[in-house]
TrEMBL record:
<dbReference type="GO" id="GO:0032259">
    <property type="term" value="P:methylation"/>
</dbReference>
<dbReference type="GO" id="GO:0008168">
    <property type="term" value="F:methyltransferase activity"/>
</dbReference>
<keyword id="KW-0489">Methyltransferase</keyword>
<dbReference type="Pfam" id="PF06962">
    <property type="entry name" value="rRNA_methylase"/>
</dbReference>
<keyword id="KW-0808">Transferase</keyword>
<protein>
    <submittedName>
        <fullName>Putative rRNA methylase</fullName>
    </submittedName>
</protein>
<dbReference type="InterPro" id="IPR029063">
    <property type="entry name" value="SAM-dependent_MTases_sf"/>
</dbReference>
<dbReference type="InterPro" id="IPR010719">
    <property type="entry name" value="MnmM_MeTrfase"/>
</dbReference>
């Protein structure tokens, strides 16, 4: 396997789990690339729930899904990922978080540590044993650095009997490259 950027590495970790998935989550739909990846790699009858707080992001996501004929596999939700339990009451096979702001959008409308931690802490109990969550964080700017630190601290405190948590990033790139966290549910308690 070749080394790639954090977003591509997230997809590589997720890919093998998607073939038998029923329900997967894109917690930050943005421009729809991750949603498209999920929708294109799950079985015919499986569903992606894709969250974003910006209608602009969900419209972009709908547009790209329609272009590839995959819109029927995705439910778009205009709400914070912190409210995930309002929409899901069955086991989740995989979830992606791609933190930060909408590329090409308003940089002030970004993920924030409180809602991010709330969303992660609500998503992990929904995860099926063997399921994974990927989180790409961006420590290359002030707000992103703080969010990355908060996420790291939260994940480092998870029970090692219940979760395997890994962290991946390029170490020879300038300007604090993105960090990928991978969380696998390995036990129920
Ligand atoms: N996954 C996207 C893609 O493939 O294009 C990129 C996501 S972008 C880096 C981050 C997105 O998170 C933005 O569109 C932003 O509106 C969204 N966001 C920020 N806070 C959120 C929240 N509390 N709940 C859901 N989405 C949120």
């Amino acid at each position: 396997m070749e080394i790639a950027n954090a977003v591509v590495m997230a997809q590589r970790f997720l890919s093998p789990r998607l073939a038998a998935a029923s329900l997967v989550v894109d917690a930050t739909a943005g421009n729809g690339k991750d949603t498209l990846f999920l929708a294109g790699n799950i079985p015919h009858a499986a569903v992606v729930l894709a969250f974003d707080i910006q209608q602009q992001a969900l419209s972009k996501t709908h547009e790209i899904l329609t272009k590839y004929g995959l819109e029927h596999k995705v439910r778009l939700i205009l709400d914070s990922h912190a409210h995930i339990t309002k929409y899901i009451n069955q086991p989740v096979d995989a979830a992606m978080f791609n933190l930060g702001y909408l590329p090409g959008g308003d940089h002030a409308v970004s993920t924030y540590p409180d809602a991010t931690i709330e969303a992660i802490s609500h998503t992990l109990p929904l995860l099926r044993t063997g399921g994974i969550v990927t989180i790409v964080a961006y420590p290359g700017y002030d707000h992103g650095r703080l969010e990355c630190q908060v996420v790291h601290k939260y994940l480092a405190g998870l029970s090692q009997n219940q979760f395997a948590v890994a962290c991946w990033s390029m170490v020879n790139q300038k300007n604090s490259p993105p960090v990928l966290y991978i969380i696998e549910k390995i036990g129920s308690e």
